[in-house]
Write a structure and sequence with these properties.
heterodimer, A: 126 residues, mainly beta, Immunoglobulin-like, 5-stranded mixed sheet, elongated, B: alpha+beta, 1 helix, 35% strand
Chain lengths: 126, 145
């Protein structure tokens, strides 16, 4: 259904922060495609989801963690903003894509257009 | 003549190795899964008066996270729900860690569990762990004598 879009030029860095590719689950159901993206630290007003032709791009700004005067003594993640693009191989209903952000998890639901829904063709006996 | 042939062959070999490395980089660069460490990812900051532990737990309900502090060890336990599975559901990509998790992090010093506090926002758990007063480094005043 989807595949990672070919790497494009990185977005202009405004704050010199690294760009992180968020881990993603993609599940196709009968009439929609569900995408789950881990974007911890992102708030709804800092998330943008755009669909240009068949390329779906997700960008999210995240707050920095840490404290002034404290020293980082153990690190397993980097602070940064999220960005990832996917090319959709099936037509989706662009007007009805929904995006919900809860507890740092972005849930996108892309309804398939009627043409993409598998159709059962009845076979008649003669 | 012989030397030339050998040099040529060595160059060719180097080129092949380089090409193989490029191929590998290309291959691994496309697999974000391989760069993932343990879940949840935790950063620890330490200061004079305490430690700050930040864990990234996106998609986990804060009520489902159990935090325990004992001396210099913090333990996080919880569970992340799995993606929906049913008949006719096709999984195209599964990169997110799911299921139960448990992690213990050793801090550089003992912390006062009674003074500890936890905050949760946007899938980020922040623990404030103060150092017991008697353990804090003290500066000694030097008296001239």
């Amino acid at each position: 259904m989807t595949s990672q879009a070919a790497s494009t030029a990185p977005a202009t860095e405004m704050r010199n922060r690294p760009t992180i590719s968020p881990p993603t689950d993609i599940v196709e159901m009968q009439d929609s495609v569900l995408m789950l993206l881990d974007v911890p630290g992102a708030e709804a007003d800092g998330v943008s989801v755009t669909l240009d032709k068949n390329v779906l791009t997700i960008q999210a700004r995240a707050r920095s963690t840490g404290r002034e005067g404290y020293e980082l003594v153990h690190a397993e993640y980097r602070d940064g903003d999220y960005e990832r693009s996917f090319s959709l191989s099936e037509p989706v209903d662009q007007e009805n894509i929904s995006a919900v952000l809860e507890h740092g998890l972005l849930r996108l639901t892309l309804p398939k257009t009627r043409a993409a829904t598998p159709k059962q063709i009845p076979v008649q006996a003669e | 003549m012989l030397i030339d042939a050998l040099t040529e062959r060595r160059l060719d070999l180097l080129q092949q190795l380089r090409r193989a490395q490029q191929d590998m980089n290309h291959l691994f660069g496309r697999l974000p899964l391989l760069h993932q460490g343990p879940f949840p990812a935790v950063n620890v900051w330490a200061g004079v008066d305490g430690a700050l532990v930040v864990a990234r737990v996106p998609g986990v309900d804060p009520d489902q996270i159990e935090v325990t502090v004992h001396q210099d060890v913090v333990t996080l336990r919880g569970e992340r729900s799995a993606i929906p599975q049913a008949d006719g559901v096709i999984v195209h990509r599964r990169e997110r860690v799911e299921g139960p998790f448990s992690r213990s992090i050793a801090l550089p010093f003992r912390v006062d569990a009674n003074g500890a506090s936890a905050r949760f926002a946007a899938g980020v758990l922040t623990l404030e762990l103060p150092r017991p007063t008697e353990d804090k480094p003290r500066q000694l005043r030097i008296v001239a004598g």
